[in-house]
Write a structure and sequence with these properties.
Radius of gyration: 18 Å
Strand order of the largest sheet: 6-3-4-5-7
Oligomer: single chain
Order of helices and strands: EEEHHEEEEHHH
Structural class: alpha+beta
Number of strands: 7
Mean pLDDT: 92
Helix content: 25-40%
Distance between the termini: 52 Å
Largest sheet: 5 strands, antiparallel
Length: 184
Amino acid sequence: MKAVVHIKYGPPEVLQIEEVDKPVPKDNEVLIKVYATTVNRTDCGFRSAVYFISRFWSGLLKPKYQTLGCEFAGVIEEVGKDVTSLKIGDKVFGYNDTKFDAHAEYMTMTENEAIVTMPSDLSFEGAAPITEGAHYALCDLRAVKIKAGQNVMIYGATGAIGSAAVQLAKYFVQRLLLCAILKC
């Protein structure tokens, strides 16, 4: 199968399209044929390793995971024998910033990772870019511990993280306000 790989850190020019082995799912994994992916800030950060601290996860001197791509959408082609929540033919999308792999024709993930079936009215191209910004926005909003009655200001709400933060903050504020009224 084809994959975009990098064997050293650096600018986009370190990326090469190469022929690599197709992954084989373990008992608790699914094999996903990737139909759409993105190139986002996480991928670029791990590719360049300009922020040296990222190397503690990605490999100190050279990339431990040579195929990047943390956002994806695709179809499950194989399931391991222990997988119960997903099946062959499911359209799925998700996020994987631990081992990446979405910049390839196929990737594997466990069913317990950040992977979910796609709504029927969502395209692969529409599903793939949903997760990375929402992941960071959700982490940030949970960290500030919003309470009912508080105002929330999101500075820079035009990118993936900011636009997701606006939507999530609205949801949290409404939910907390409803809970305060209903004494949840």
